[in-house]
TrEMBL record:
One function term, GO molecular function aspect: dimethylpropiothetin dethiomethylase activity
UniProt xrefs under Gene3D superfamilies: Jelly Rolls
A Pfam family matched in the record: DMSP_lyase
The protein's name in its UniProt record: Dimethlysulfonioproprionate lyase
Ranges annotated as spanning the membrane: none
Alphabetized InterPro entries for the sequence: DMSP_lyase (IPR031723), RmlC-like_jellyroll (IPR014710), RmlC_Cupin_sf (IPR011051)
């Protein structure tokens, strides 16, 4: 169990939630909780504004590096040319609200390459979940999350292509689903088993791309290791929820 760390705003401690205090997530605690700074509201707001502005600059730098890393990683992969043809140009950025999820604890220990870059910058990214407990159960949500870097919701705006990272914890199954967008996955860490259409689950090692045509059912499951994979989406509604099939 990790220890919660108090930060002070002039007088009095500021308590942080457990969600932001994974062992290597302590940088989140630099943003003061204005509501708990009784009697020091104006000073705390000024400090929060400075911290958020600094954090936003860091986020934008990280977004650019990750977007460039994704583009470089998939360049030359079969089927990737159409995705990269729609890749956004220019330096436009969209503000994000950083937030980690329980699954992010499995990023700890990842080092080197694009996966290491994601792990080091995880606290500055906005991690999301498409599904709720009513879809796949609460246990699934503890071991599932994704963050978009390029797309309708990511810090690098695009209406034609989406790209980001999917993280699955160990011993979890992502049930069969399908969507209108064409998709490419490229595993960056861990060995997972993938299923496409009516085929049986088969292991896919790090660095081997998986391509899903529109509306092709697919599923994945992990074993003893977590899996981090980059993804690309193209075509259709880039923010649409997948159709659950299994």
């Amino acid at each position: 169990m990790w220890r919660l760390r108090d930060r002070r705003c002039r007088k009095g401690p500021i308590r942080r939630s457990r969600r932001s205090c994974y062992p290597w997530f302590h940088r989140l605690a630099t943003l003061p909780n204005v509501a708990e700074c009784s009697g020091r509201r104006a000073a705390c707001k000024r400090r929060a504004g400075r911290a958020r502005r600094t954090g936003l600059e860091c986020d934008m730098d990280l977004a650019g590096r990750l977007a460039a890393g994704i583009r470089a990683a998939v360049a030359g992969l079969p089927g990737a040319a159409d995705f990269l043809a729609d890749w956004p140009e220019g330096g436009a950025r969209r503000a994000q609200v950083p937030g980690v999820l329980p699954v992010c604890r499995w990023l700890e220990g990842m080092a080197g390459g694009l996966g290491g870059e994601v792990a080091r910058g995880a606290v500055a990214l906005e991690w999301r979940q498409t599904y709720g407990a009513g879809d796949f159960g609460a246990a699934f949500l503890e071991r599932y999350g994704w963050t978009e870097i390029v797309g309708l919701r990511g810090p690098v705006p695009s209406e034609r292509v989406a790209a980001g990272f999917l993280l699955l914890g160990p011993d979890v199954t992502y049930p069969a689903h399908a969507h209108e967008a064409a998709e490419i996955y490229l595993p960056l860490s861990g060995v997972a088993w993938w299923q496409k259409g009516d085929a049986a689950f088969a292991p896919v090692p790090v660095g081997q791309a998986i391509h899903h045509a529109p509306w092709v059912p697919h599923a994945m499951r992990t074993g003893a290791e977590p899996m981090l994979a980059l993804y690309l989406w193209r075509g259709g509604d880039l923010a649409a929820k997948s159709v659950i099939l299994g």
